[in-house]
Design a protein that fits this description.
This protein is α/β, with parallel strands linked by helices. The chain is built from six helices and 20 strands. The protein has two domains: 200 residues, Metallo-beta-lactamase, Chain A, CATH 3.60.15; 121 residues, Rossmann fold, CATH 3.40.50. The strands form three sheets. It has a seven-stranded mixed β-sheet with strand order 6-5-4-3-2-1-20. A seven-stranded mixed β-sheet has the order 7-8-9-10-11-18-19, covered by helices on one side. Helix 1 packs antiparallel against helix 4. The longest helix has 17 residues. The protein is globular.
């Protein structure tokens, strides 16, 4: 084994072998050789910086549709990939694995001549109304996100949270208010829309940016019933009946008599009385992360985002796994594979 095969942190995880160089979820737009293969795990903005730059890029069809719907421009040099359909790049094989985080989100299983690496991207380990839970695969080395990698973050049963959301919204509607959910435009918004489609008769109205992501979900077979907010006017009967409004976290243009709610895993730590909050997350909680690591049987684990130091320390002490937080410095070497 030579030093040609290595993994580094370079504004994203960079995997280099003798014949191939690829970067996973690069967090910057430029700075990469045009021959570098860029693999994108999902359509959230902090993972799609390179979509507007030239060079080979790989993502699922759903990720492309959501991104192009939100940004109203095509992705250049994109090669669509599918779950469980390996991509062969000289001496490396990359297999997309479902990540459960949002529509089209994937992990990457990377087989080099000497090792198998699994990069999770953002991860969700339970079924939701719009996604299936992340799949476990075995690997030698695991790079895992730990947004909620702290023992405090154990989420309640999802069905119980769904019930609380519906109860709150229907009560507000009976009182003459418009329950308004401020959530991520892609992923969480569609879960909220589908929740009210399935469990209530309340109409759903979506802001323009949420509607753009909804359209991608509908085209991919996740059926959502909603009206676009720009279609609501004085002549429209929706003004005369209760409805649920779904918009983004930063939107201040909301209907009159709006009652605000948020749905996020961070709600476990909220103490505000200014708005309703529900601990509904598209990320794995602490307990789910631990079980996911166990299932991979990885000998080495690198942890990124969130509570990286806390989670890595737990894995070291409780599971006796060689685990460490992924360094944040640009161009910082992680490891060289050896026999």
């Amino acid at each position: 084994m030579t030093r040609d095969e290595r993994v580094e942190w370079a504004s994203g995880v960079r995997v280099t072998t003798k014949e191939t160089c690829l970067v996973l979820d690069p967090s910057r737009r430029g700075g990469f050789d045009r021959k570098t293969h860029r693999f994108i795990s999902h359509a959230h903005a902090d993972h799609t910086q390179c979509f507007s730059t030239p060079g080979p890029k790989y993502a699922t069809k759903s990720t492309r549709m959501i991104y192009e719907g939100l940004h109203r421009r095509p992705i250049v040099d994109l090669k669509e990939i599918r779950v469980k359909d390996p991509v062969k790049l000289d001496d490396v094989e990359v297999t997309p694995i479902n990540a459960g985080h949002m529509l089209g989100s994937i992990q990457f299983k990377i087989a080099t001549p000497n090792k198998t690496l699994l990069y999770t991207g953002d991860l969700n380990c339970v079924d939701t109304l719009t996604t299936s839970r992340a799949e476990n695969v075995e690997c030698d080395m695991l790079l895992i996100e730990a947004t909620f990698g702290k023992p405090y973050y154990i989420f309640p049963d999802r069905e119980a949270t769904y019930a609380k959301i519906v109860d709150w919204a229907t009560q507000r509607a009976r009182e003459g208010y418009i329950p308004t959910f401020h959530v991520y435009a892609a992923g969480k918004a569609q879960e909220i829309v589908r929740l009210f489609n399935i469990y209530t008769r309340l109409p759903v109205v979506a802001s323009p940016v949420v509607s753009a992501a909804n359209e991608a979900y509908n085209r991919e077979g996740v059926k959502l019933s909603y009206e676009k907010s720009e279609l609501i006017n004085e002549e429209n009967s929706s003004h005369q009946t209760p409805y649920v409004y779904v918009t983004t976290t930063s939107d201040s243009l909301v209907p009159e008599k709006s009652e605000k709610a948020v749905a996020t895993g961070w709600a476990l730590g909220y103490t505000t009385n200014r708005f309703a909050s529900f601990p509904l997350s598209s990320h794995a909680d602490f307990r789910q992360l631990v079980e996911f690591v166990r299932a991979t049987k990885a000998k080495t684990v690198y942890v990124f985002t969130g509570f990286g130091d806390v989670f890595a320390s737990y894995l070291q002490k409780k599971l006796e796994i060689d685990a460490r937080a992924l360094p944040s410095e640009i161009q910082k070497k992680l490891v060289e594979f050896k026999h």
